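look at this stuff:

>
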Amino acid sequence: MLIQNYVKTAARNLKRNRFFTLLNVFCLALGMSISLLFVALLAFLFRFEDFHENRDRIYRVTTHVEDNEENPDYASAPAAIAQKLRENIAGIETVVPIQTAMASEVIFNEKHTPVYSYFTGPEFLQVFNFPLIKGNTASALASPNSVVITESEAKNIFGSKDPIGEFVQIEPYGDLQVTGVLQDIPKNSHMIFDVLVSYSTLASHEGTAFIENEESWTKFFNSYVYVLLSGHQDPTDVEHTLNKLTKEKYPDPKKYAASFELQPLTEIVPGNALDNPIGRQWPSLGLMLIGLTTMIILIPACANYVHLSISQSLKRMKEIGVRKVMGGQKKQIFFQFVMESMLTMLLALALSGVMFEAIRNEFLKIIGSETTDLTATFPTIIYFILFALLVGMVAGVSPALYFSKINPVRALKGKPEQTRMGGRITVRKVMITLQFILSLGFITSVVIMLQQYRYSVNYDFGFEQQNILDVELKNVDPKIFKNEYGKLSSIETISMSSHILGLEYNSANYIRAIGGSDSIESAVIAIDESFIGNLRLKLLAGKQFTENAAENAQFIIVNEELVKKLEIEDIHAAIGKVVVLPGGKAVHIGGVVKNFNYAMLTEPIGGLYFEYDPQQFRYANMKMMSHENVRDIAALEALWKKIGGDDKFTAQYFSEEVADAYSFYFEMIKIWGYLGLLAITVSCLGLLGTVVFTIKNRIKEVSIRKVVGASTEKLVIMLSKEFVILLVVASVITLPLVYIGFRDWLLPSIQQQNVEIGFLEIGVSLLIMSALGLSTILSQTIKAANANPVDNLKVE
């Protein structure tokens, strides 16, 4: 009954102060809309792996490397660890080795389907609960050359045909028989795969060397080991025994050593960020940053509520004084105001729920709609309500304490004291200044990121970008493609490459000079004889590839940076130098090209070499006579039908590929823009409420000044001066911080070369903030200055 009275009284007070109630509800709804996304994300992440029956007993072996440099932590582990665990350590029921493959293709009836595949054994289907729709769990992955496919990929590859017993081709492993069909992998699994290939297939193709080789103890990328422990087995005992067994594999700890830990399956997502993950990972630090970002919006909204609640104290002084004189206790007044806050928050929750639905899909596009589920399920809605009540309780504590401690005599006189932080600085001034700082910070960030996006898209990579159409070759012979498309008048020149220049390359290739002991990491791209001329790369020394394939196979073309890494002083002296490529093949340097951005601008220019290898050509780079000529594209597609078979014609202009590749800047702009819009809206609404209340409290002063001759201009200046000063203070604090933050931290971390932050970005940001702030202030001060003083003084 007591709670019911609190609710009724709170509802009456909210209804009585409609303007401030609506203002608070809207501000809090804006602030909570982003927070609800975060709550929904947390609800999703903490459901990860909950479908595995034995999830509390499943662990992943992780590796900590001591290499005296970066000392990284890996999600992967040496493949030989699996055998050690099986043979020498008690308390382990099952060991599951997994070897991931790079994105590969499944070929069926000449149809190429890109897939993500794992090599693993029958233990995988026994330990993890990925149910088979068709096939036998015990035998599906037991034999060599057997493969299990997810349901959606089975439909994609075979259509309505029953896939069991059919043969597909996966290079370089040959023909594999489909022995099972899995249910699609749930979104709340950290593993991502379309196809499971039996581990024995990999062993028969590679031999046991990839497991038994001593080098595998230091190079174990894409190798993973999971274990299912017995019911009461302590994982630390397993770790201790395992590290004892493997100590002999690292004889010189000063040079290289590794130790192993068991990571619980339930702590992978969310969890620590590890190198070489098998699939999804949501680092705890990243979640904290997202949570902090939501708080940046929610806290000012709650602060607005606190500030406006306390600002209205003059109207509620007598009410509180009377309640205290009539025997009202501090705790009763305290709970009354907390109840008002929670009721306001629940009203805001209803509105923020609508906003949540409106922005959810956009948020999913940013973080990955295919891998994340933010559906507002019943448990999630309960979390929303609990979150709103918690925020309402926290936000209501400050005004509740303020009102419950008011002296009843002062309250009846209507003389509350302002909450001061020292001198003339009040909480109200601090809150307004912080809101200005937040809004200006977001505006400046968005303006700078827009400039950065324009800079990236229009950046000169060092090679031709205009009118270059990149076409995926798929299974079309490069010679046939070049011969057929070379006949079209709309095409100027055609070249071939293994990667899209400026966006991707083959990494982790190590070469060494003859006589040198150290290997040098270098990127590599396979090109043909027309590539350098077609892309207008600048050849500084030596020669290009020719039509003589045998001669081309004997040399490579390097960039200036690789010459430096090979410690060759002069680019001309590099010509003829012999180097050894991965696999032991010796070639000489035939040419040197000027440095250019062969990768994303987020990466520094490193060593690169071009090789001639038609087997690796995946793209045709066609220099078109004109850009986006509809008739030309139609002709290209028509010709493709003759040589490409059933494969779809896939082509994109290089300029569009660059724009897509750097779309993360645009996504960042959208995120910051939306957050900035919320921050600015909350700030302006809070400022509006403060200005309205301040003017109401000074309306008689304004009327008297007007009667005695004060002009409208002077009254506007008098009412606006304090707010304008706070805006100036906020600008002085914010702009240097944002400038230094972008110049010294954010931009260097995302791009090698930075766009200059100048007066334009600062000036535009300041102009936008000033316009918004001043329009909010002046809209009320001008109205007050122009009011008829008779209306405000007639009762005096």
Q: What stands out?
A: The chain is about 50% helix and 15% strand. Residues 749-754 have pLDDT under 50 and may be disordered. The chain has four domains: 1-48+286-417, 55-267, 447-457+662-796, 468-661. Residues 712-750 form the longest helix (39 residues).
